[in-house]
Amino acid sequence: MKRSILSLSLLLALPLTAQMAGPSIAHAAAMKVTLNVASAYKHKMAFAHTMASATVTQVKSGDYRVTVTTEKLPMPSAVHQMDYVVWLTNGNMKVRAGALKVNNGMASLKATVMISKVTDVVVTGEHSAMPAHPMGPTVLSGMVG
Asked: Which CATH number is associated with domain 24-143?
């Protein structure tokens, strides 16, 4: 009888112990990233007042949510491209998060991407919104963490 009461009390305490161990991945802190204009475009008048930022949050192991917002971003034609595409990188791998659609200088994107970790957020100019890998010029970039 004593063993069954002891086993039951340990079983009931287990979920509480797991909660006290620390925050779960679902509640991981959001990482704010300032996206800087690439040096090739810093001195171009079209990018003089461009501001951009990203928020990266790990939602579970291997999945990250990214939100990118920009202000005063010129149309992709300013870099001789059709679209701006957001990429998350982990140093070696680059995963497309989606395309930014510019409207009156404002653009945003919310996406969830499967990647083991995120070290950088990069925006490139591309000939299409769905390239398999970055081929165009880097326009904005920032390091995570």
From this structure: 2.60.40
